[in-house]
């Protein structure tokens, strides 16, 4: 069974928000359990999502300024899925709505 599209896009949305705003970032969705306040260049960071244990693998896409290097492996033992990233360089400024 394929996961709904929101599950695939949730991580990408959070990463874009983090990189677009160098200051504090509020969770865009209640399914985001943890996202860092600040992402520094060459720093490792984690994003944790609340997903059903039976949910399929989540496809993660990131901007060129970020690399994905680890994640919770399936089968998951809890509803918390963790994704680990490294910021490679400062991201270009992105216009965001208030």
Structure description:
The chain has 98 residues and is α+β, with helices and mostly antiparallel strands. The chain has one domain (5-87). It has one helix spanning 5-20, and strands spanning 32-34, 44-50, 66-71, 80-87. The chain has a four-stranded antiparallel sheet, with helices on one face. A hairpin with an 8-residue loop joins strand 3 and strand 4. The longest helix is centred in the first third of the chain and has 16 residues, at 5-20. Mean pLDDT is 75; it is low at 20-26.
Which overall shape is indicated by the principal axes computed on the Cα atoms? elongated
Helical fraction: 10-25%
Number of helices: 1
Question: Nearest-angstrom radius of gyration?
Answer: 13 Å
What percent strand? 15-25%
Low-confidence stretches: 20-26
Task: Give the strand order of the largest sheet, numbering strands 1, 2, ... along the chain.
Answer: 1-2-4-3
| Helix and strand pattern | HEEEE
Count of structural domains: 1
Largest sheet: 4 strands, antiparallel
